[in-house]
Write a structure and sequence with these properties.
two-stranded parallel sheet, Transcription Regulator spoIIAA, four-stranded parallel β-sheet, alpha/beta
Length: 99
């Protein structure tokens, strides 16, 4: 599972996108899962990073899902009309949810 950092803004978006792109290459299976539970500070650049990760995942023939998408970021995705491109999935039963 790919994990987003606690902060993802314009200043860190390029580095985060590169990190996710590299990690994506070694992710096994047919589904790319991104854990967004640590993300607390972000701007609309976080959407761009997630969408780029989705494109890269699809280019590898994999599905894409985001786990624990912050409600505020989900709201931004609705505002920008990309909410259907970033499917949210709950953490599996027994997994630790953010406090």
């Amino acid at each position: 599972m790919l994990v987003l950092p606690s902060s993802l803004t314009h200043d860190t978006a390029s580095a985060c996108a590169r990190m996710l792109q590299q990690a994506l290459q070694s992710e096994p299976g047919g589904l790319t899962e991104v854990d967004a539970s640590a993300l607390v500070r972000f701007d609309s650049s976080a959407l761009a990073v997630l969408l780029e990760c989705r494109r890269a995942s699809q280019a590898l023939g994999k599905g894409f899902v985001v786990r624990s998408l912050d409600a505020r970021l989900a709201g931004l995705s609705v505002l920008y009309g990309v909410d259907g491109l970033l499917p949210d999935a709950p953490l599996p039963l027994g997994a630790n949810a953010p406090a």
